[in-house]
Amino acid sequence: MLSDAVRSDTGYVFLTSTGAGHFARTPLGPFETTRRPPDGAVKVRLGGQTVLALLADGALVLAAVESWHFAAAVVGTRIADVGFDGADGLAIVVPESIQSSSDSGASWQSVDVEPFGAFRVQQSARGGLEVAGARGRRAWDAKAKVFGPLDHSPEQPRPVRAGTIVPDLSAFARGHAVIAGDRYFEIRGGSAWQLVEGTLGGPFTAAPLRERASPGEFEPCWDFSVAAFGRFLSLACVEPEAVRLFGSSDGGRRFSTQQRIARPTEPARASPPVAPAPMPARPEPRAHRGRLKLPSSASKPSAGFFRGVSKPKIVAGRGGAIVLQPTCGPASTDCSPNRLLLRRAHGTGLEDWPMAQTERVGGVTFSADGGVAFALTCEPWRNELYLRRAEPGKNAFGFARVETGARACDLVEELVSLSSTEDGRVAVVHGRKVPVSRVLRADGFWETSPVRLETAASHSWAGSRGLRVFANGAVDETLDAGAHFRRVTKLGFPVCADNACTMTTVCAHAGCLVGDSLTRRGWGADDAPPTSAPTITPVSTRRKERERPAWGGVIRCVTGDQTWAETPAAPRPSTFGMTTNAWLAIASSGKGGASVVRGLDAPRLRVDSRPMFAAPAGKPAGSGLWTDANELGVAAMRLEHPTDGAEVLSLAWQAAERNQLVRQHLRVPLAKSEIIGRGRRNPWASVQTTAGGVYVRWREHTLFADGRVTRDVLAAGPAGEMVRFQGQDIGIAAGGNTLQAVLHDAAGPAHRVLSVGSVSGPDFGVSTTLVSWEGRPGFAVEYARPNPEAMFFPVLASGAFGAAEALAMPPSSPVACTPRQRASTPRRLVAIDYRIVVSGPDEPEATYRGSAMLQGPADAGCVSFLVAQNSLEPSVRRLFLDLSAPGRAWLFDHGKLPMATMGPRERDTEPAQPVRFRPLRCELAS
Predict the structure, then answer these.
(1) Angle subtended at Cα 185 by Cα 167 and Cα 232, rounded to the nearest 5 degrees
(2) Which end of the chain is less packed: N or C, by CB atoms within 10 Å?
(3) What SS3 class is residue 901?
(4) C-alpha span between 82 and 96 (Å, rounded)
(5) How far is residue 448's CA from residue 427's CA, in Å, rounded to a whole number?
(6) Helix residue spans in 749-812 (DSSP H)
(7) Edge-to-edge, what's the strand order for the sheet holding 633-641?
(8) Within the chain, what is the greatest distance between any pair of CA atoms?
(9) What is d(CA 751, CA 741) in angstroms, rounded to the nearest whole number?
(10) Cα–Cα dist 914/741, whole Å
């Protein structure tokens, strides 16, 4: 895709969206040479007669258009984003500040503007440049060298021209794009939705979606899912209080509402499916088929179906038939993620696809002719895998048991793709680390042997046909589900540095889209490479990275006392290494009880457990229990029903530096029926340990309790996290590469936002951690490139962020912290390359790896303790090693079954096993 063009001394330079420069003598002449962008470039821009490239490590390099030889444009500064409008440019510097240039990037000057979470430089719809931030957008006046006021209005999509539109392959993952036959459809936009359409290979057109329906029909929609088959196009419109289905029978020229399903206002209650599915008994035949007459009420899904649904998935078949599956949001407490609804061909109502309530759905697809829907499901209790079939046009349902040598639900949970072949079979690709491809017949028998797929930058499938793209640009295709591949072509440029990277490829029966600029139509083409290819001139300006610090040698530990002791709960890393106790933990019971568990700091570790709550005056409220444990202490909150009929929150907490347990009772701000779903925890309720007390969040209410009084707090943070500093209650959050804080004063809420990194890619390596340094709250921000470093951004009493201060980096060998360093420097858990070998008379030798609690000044990092896990069974064994006294270490055993291999249902129903511990004797490497 062409992104920019400029006239040079010898002709014309055309810059594509990949960052490559194509040189031609005339505007319509052939490309005579092509020059690649620098290695690691994430953005390339033309600034007059210069070309600038932003690298993944934040470096900005510049070159003359004619020479294409890059050199550093800004030395010693990390850049988050850059943009140009002719010779005028803007750059966002990390941590957030903005610089401008008026000479194509040759020189830069600082711009005086208050931080507003700036993360992107872009072209303004009115012309010129603007900077987008978390708090809005600011337009840049290049002549006056000033920014305009914050614009909080929704960002309007920029006008597009036919012929310049290309497919957006990321839209497939969001459910916004689909290929039907050889047609491409995409819903694009946000505040003003557009329908992009065209044949594979283009050209593509874009039209406002609102013009394809009655006025106002799409106004409430804040998101869409799209599905298509033939001339039938279906949309699932997500509204705040409902999900609405639209249909078109003329290829998207005109849409009409087909059904509206309101989200329930009351908690959904479990109810049996409309028509329970027959479960296969083992002696019965492999395949089953039957017709189920659904009652008329089946056209009205039960009220709980869309509760908690973030956006449903839809798959389309012949005659407008669709299968609809809800997807639950991360905070959903009442949602049915595995339930499927059907709409018959040329029908209007939705019906339940009959299956057992405990079945899990992996994927859904329609046959090549669109008449049969297939779903791959599993039943965890029977450990059985099913291929379910539905014929919406005939109201017929059936299923077949599928033989599998592994746990059935493993294959469902690791499903990569499910697609139909042209002869009525189903192609299955599954596996997280090593994908496996095979073909399944409709009767449940595997048609082909499993094929382990070679690692590549991209794999995509359409039935038994598939395309793979390697990092070096080689493209192979298969026509037999991966049993044999043959070389199709080799692109004129490498895709990325190695096969560990990924690129997006989407295939359908008509062909494939590779990246956002290449299209392959049809299958089985000859092996000949392209008849002509541009000359490639490699350019490399990547700076050599400094080696990352690592631990030297091996730490060896042997078991001391061979007997195990039990503890109600094991500590978390944040609660280990306390000054008063060796560690703190919190244990909860299924009856609403909670206990604070202390590991007493003595020559031999012993455990003390005390109940946090007194006997309730009334009946505990079932699942109404919330707990919290952090470096400041542990806390618990329980909902109780006293005998007087009121509802009370019973609080209990213990600070890390004290052994006193504090209790307090609060009246519930809102009625329980408005807060807690039936038998589930309320995601809007929480308790948080803080300095001098606890914060309680209850829906929109935030309160602070100190054991004597309770007061309302107005500064609830964006994520509910609070800090207390110099008598101020400050709400804080770290989202992506942006720090946020909010403080209420007499004038109202004061929001502070600071961007501390780039959104250009994961190689930038930004991570944030909430820490406290000498009583000052703030964030530790770590940068992986160009060299590993960490900065501390304090939160001031005004809610603003203070100047960044350097933090310690891990030492190359284990250095224990002094008592003063432990007390006065921030704690943060970091992953370090080290090995701890544990052995003993009754302990097979095993290697443990993990993390360290890093402290110390910026120029002399030290370690207060290590926490490590068994590298083979990370959920079973864990050890803590206190570096202040290397002989003081403890090994915790969480049980014999590695919980990481269990599904969520098995994990919930597994009986709790007591945690065991025993001491270790460790020696540091010399």
Answers:
(1) 165
(2) C
(3) helix
(4) 13
(5) 10
(6) none
(7) 619-630, 633-641, 648-655, 662-667
(8) 90
(9) 6
(10) 40
Residues forming a β-bridge with 920: 559, 889
**Cα(730)–Cα(801) distance, rounded to whole angstroms?**
12
Q: Which residue has the higher pLDDT, 786 or 331?
A: 786
Distances (CA, A) of 692 to 384, 391, 726: 54, 64, 12
For residue 545, what is the DSSP state? P
Nearest to 129 by CA among 109, 114, 146: 146
Residue 761: CB atoms within 10 A of its CB come to 12
Pairing of strands 396-402, 583-588: unpaired
- Strands 78-85, 322-325: parallel, antiparallel or unpaired by DSSP? unpaired
Q: Does the pLDDT at position 32 exceed 70?
A: yes
pLDDT tens by residue, 842-866:
888 888 877 888 889 988 899 888 8
Amino acid 294: pLDDT: 35
Contact 493, 448 (CB under 8 A): no
Comparing C-alpha atoms, which of 388, 383, 417 is closest to residue 403?
A: 383
* 253-286 residue pLDDT tens: 999 988 887 765 443 333 333 333 444 444 333 4
Asked whether 880 and 571 are in contact (CB, 8 A), the reply is yes
Q: Which of 460, 512, 475, 514 is nearest to 182 (CA)?
A: 512
Closest by CA position to 553, among listed 923, 915, 231, 254: 923
Any residues with CB less than 8 A from the CB of 604 and at least 6 apart, and which?
561, 919
Which of 225, 247, 216 is CA-nearest to residue 234?
A: 247
Question: ∠646-648-649 over CA atoms, to 5°?
Answer: 165
In the DSSP assignment, the letter for residue 719 is: T
C-alpha atoms less than 13 angstroms from C-alpha of 872 in its C-beta half-sphere: 8
Sort strands 436-440 and 836-840 into parallel, antiparallel or unpaired.
Answer: unpaired
Q: Which residue has the tokens 């005004």?
A: 798
Q: How many CB atoms lie within 10 A of CB 687?
A: 23
- Contact in structure between 217 and 210 (CB atoms under 8 Å): yes
Among 493, 473, 495, which Cα is nearest to 536's? 493
Nearest-angstrom CA–CA distance, 76 and 94: 11
Q: Which long-range contacts (CB under 8 A, 24 or more apart) does 667-672 make?
A: 668/639, 668/698, 669/698, 669/699, 669/701, 669/703, 670/698, 670/699, 670/701, 671/647, 672/621, 672/624, 672/639, 672/647
Q: Does the pTM exceed 0.85?
A: no
* Spatial distance between the Cα atoms of 627 and 193, rounded to a whole number of angstroms: 43
